[in-house]
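Subject: two folds for Thursday's group meeting

Dear M.,

Sorry for the delay on this. The cluster queue was jammed most of the week, so I only got both jobs back this morning. I'm pasting them in the order they finished. Each block is the input sequence followed by the predicted structure tokens. Could you check whether the formatting survives your parser before we put anything on slides? The first protein is the one we discussed after the seminar.
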Amino acid sequence: MKTTLSIAIISLGTVIVFGQAGNWREHPAIQYSTSPVHDPVAELNQKLAGGAATLSFDSTFGYLKSVLSALKVPVESQLLVFSKTSLQSILISPDNPRAIFFNDSVAVGWVRGSPLLELAVQDPQQGMIFYTLAQTPQTRPVLAAEETGVCLGCHQTPASLDVPGGVVRSVFPGAAGTIVAELAGVEADHRTPFDNRWGGWYVSGKLGPLGHLANATVSGVREGADGKESRIANREPLPEKFATSTYLTPYSDVVALAVFEHQMHMMNLITRLRWEARTGSTPSALRNSAAEFVAYLLFIDEAPLTGRLEGTSGFTAKFAAMGPFDGKGRSLRQFDLANRLMRYPCSYMIYSDAFNALPRKAKDAIYERMWEVLSGQEKDSKYKRLSATDRQAVVEILKDTLPEFAAGQ
């Protein structure tokens, strides 16, 4: 059964030397389909089987609340997408959007009235693994891994850097949520101009004068091409769009969505670099990939904010409180939201289990490149957006919170 959770990414045109993505996936050093997994969902299944954990069924949300709690996925992260861009598109519409909840490694998809929960989780070694859970009361529920490879038809493509990953898209949806085929959408991450983001998504919060495509449908090709009507920010409060009372929260938080877009591409970059290192990438190729990785990690090409973002779900405070913090109380999870997403321009995903599990030679290449950039040795003009103050703050935070980084100086 296909478990599709359409979540992030834009390809940078990387050429996979092993030909088709599927062949690369089953390379002897990867063996995606047969290697054991050690992701948070697999660990939860072990606890469920052994009786160390249980899941409770709710008549309204099924296992959703229990699964979120077991996997430590915050309710405040709720995002709502109403475009028909997933397996369960027949159930999805502007008045019945799909809810996505996420943390650093897990994304959970819930559709009101659906017989399934969908989960996508980052395995530290293998990349994204897909699971489903039947939304019917069970004595001993099990989250079933998708084993047919069907999901990868959408989730291992150039849009996910040819590794098992996520795909977040901004599209032009018609009145029923169906994509207007004649209008091209885009894969989105933190580099995507805001004028092109969030088509087919609901967004709540305060966005100042920021232009975007959220909270609106288009009536046809002309309106979508014009973009004038569809780009009006916050056209209506979400309760006027659909019955928010039937969801866990009435929000689709703008800050959470911006974080989600950033994170999905970061996860794909981590998986791709791991696979390149494991399949014998040359030192030169690994350095080139590390340079691309570090540019994204340090938000070098981030689209500038033209209006202040302010979330209202509680996600901003909860995320920022997670740390880790350096001796001065600074963290890579603290937000800016006036000029850019993060206060300190280095991704918090550098602390993730997936990053930590990278092969030694991949991490060495990353740290070497980070020091080149953060020391000011790199003179390319695009790196000038990193001020000396920014570079010093990132170095100090990482020295306090990631000893491995300091050791690579």
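Second protein, same layout:
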Amino acid sequence: MCCFYYKKRKTKGFTLTELVIVIGIIGLLMSILFPSFHRIREQARSAVCTGNLQQIGYAVLSYFGDYDGYFPPAYQSDSGTHWWGQKKSDGIDYRKGFAWPYLQTRLEEKGLYECPSQPYGSYHLQAKPAGAPDDPKWITSTYGYNGYYLSPPRTAWPNIDMRPWQKVTSVLHPAEVFVFADTLLDRDTTGSSPNVENNALLDPPYLYTSSGWRKNDFPTTCFRHLEKTGVLFADNHCRLMGLEDSKYTHPKSKIGSVGVTNAPHYVPDYKRWPVSPHGRR
């Protein structure tokens, strides 16, 4: 009869000190890697954003062909139509928008008119009636159109309807002039708590009034891509841009303007405008 004897192997587990050290190392690695993950994710979103802007640019090019080279209107007051659509009692009719015949895409969550870094639910809805509940039927766009310079007679802004409606051949320095960019509006006046809503107009850093140009306290350019904004230029190229020596007017919501004056990106000919809407220099 054979007898086999097995020697029991002792197993050693983690001590509490070792476990704490491992958890600390994992935490350290996560703190190092997390900013990189965030940056990579935001770079991917910014690539989608500029892709969206490029497609909108193709629609603008198509509009030129049908309307003698003119840029699309920002707003048509007699019909209540915006570049993105028409506001009705039951929601937004996107098929009425000036871009619709050339793009034919819906205003919707994760749609072409939505920057992926500013999704539905992260802002108040610009077109929603006061008191109405949030609903995707009120989605417009988180990209703003520079109608202030490109189509002054067809905007909702006062005092600028006497300025010329721009054609593709009349734009000064088209490689520098913004057509669309990432936008957002912060209505907070204290700087303590952002109160943001989407805004589909790209407002310049200075506004034209009866007494001349005054600083815009509520610009709409939003730098949501790692301190940069996606831009479509008048020559139809896209890229990301930073503040260019300017400062945020609303730091918490990352809203400001590219540069400190209207030229060259927003209103390149602003120095040629009359002293007031009713007088010439």
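Two things I noticed about the second structure. The chain has a mean pLDDT of 89. The two ends are 120 Å apart (CA to CA).

Cheers,
T.
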